[in-house]
Amino acid sequence: MEYPYExxxxxxxxxxxFDTNKCIACQTCTVACKNTWTAGRGQEYMFWNNxxxxxxxxxxxxxxxxxxxxxxxxxxxxxVYTGKTIFEKAREEGHENAVGIFPELEDWAYPNIGExxxxxxxxxxxxxxxxxxxxxxxxxxxxxxxHCTYPGCASRCPRKAIYKRQEDGIVLxxxxxxxxxxxxxxxxxxxxxxxxAHTGRSEKCLGxxxxxxxxxxxxxxxxxxxKIRMQGWLNTPENAEEDxxxxxxxxxxxxxxxxxxxxxxxxxIYYIPPINVPVPFLKQxxxxxxxKAVLNYREALRHDKVLQxxxxxxxxxxxxxxxFKMNNDKTYGYNDKGTQVATVPIQEPKHIRKxxxxxxxxxxxxxx
Length: 368
Known about the structure:
The chain contains eleven helices and 17 strands. By secondary structure, the protein is α+β, with helices and mostly antiparallel strands.
C-alpha cells in the first residue's frame, strides 16, 4: 500500500482497546463527549463518539456498507489482504488520493437506528440459547476517531489543514487553514470528520488532547460505565513491549483487532471482538484473525492470570496506564512517570454474612 504523503511515525501513538463483550450501550461515553465538545451551533448532529448496534445500526446511515461496496468488498488470502484499499482504489480510478463516500444530510439524522435490533429471527418465550455463536444476535460497537497512522481525511485535504501530532499521533484539523471544502468528510472511511455549517469548517474528535497532555484519559474513556476501554500508547509490532497493556493485547496475544483493516488507514482504535457473533460477519469487520482472537478470549481468559488481570484493569484509573504488572493475584497499573495509579484484584473478595442480623432483627435474602 502506498500513501499519498510521507507520514513519519509519531514519537508515541495514541491508541485504545475496546472490549465489545462488555459494552451495554448506555451511551454515557456519547453524552460525555457531546457535552464537552459538540454542544455548539452547527454541531447539533455531531456525535464524535457514538455507539452502534450491529448488524443494523450505522451512523451515518450505511457508512461501512457503502464504502465496502465501493472498494469491491475486499478479499483475503490467508492473513494477507489482496483487495483494494481506499488509496489503491483511488489510484486505479485515476482521481482523488482516497476514494470515499459523502453522506447526505439526512444520513446523519438517525444516530440510534437499528438499536437493539436482533439478527436471526425472533426470540420466543422460554427459548434457551446455550451455544456460541448465538442463533440470534446483535452487539454494540462504540466508535471514535481512529487517529489513523495513514489518515484518509488528511490525504484528501487540499489545504493540508489536517495534521498528525508528532508527540502523540492525535489527528487534528487546523481551523485557521480549513476552508470547508468537505474533502475530509468524504475521505475519512469511518466518517469521523464532520462539517459545521455554522462556521463553514470541518471538525472532528480531538482525542481530548488537553487531557492527554496531562496524562489523563479522554472523556469517553473516563466516563465508560462498563469499563470496556483501555487507553494508552501503541508501539509497532517489532517494538512491542509485554508490560505495555496495549502492546500485550494487540501484538503479543493478538486479542484486539482493528476495525475494517481493508480500508488501509491503519486505525489505532482496536476491538476485542464479540464472542456471540458468527465468524463470517466478524471477518468482514475485523479481518481473518478474528476467529483465533475470539477463541483466545473464550478459552484463555478462563485460566490465563495475566489476561484476566489486564482485562480487570480496564477503566480502573482516570490516568493513562502505560505499564502493568501482576503480583499476588493483583494487577498494578503505572503511568508514564512510573507512578502506580491503579490496583485491581483479579477476583473481587467475597464476604459471607450471617442470614439473620441480630442487631436489626431481620433475615437477609442476599448474604454475599
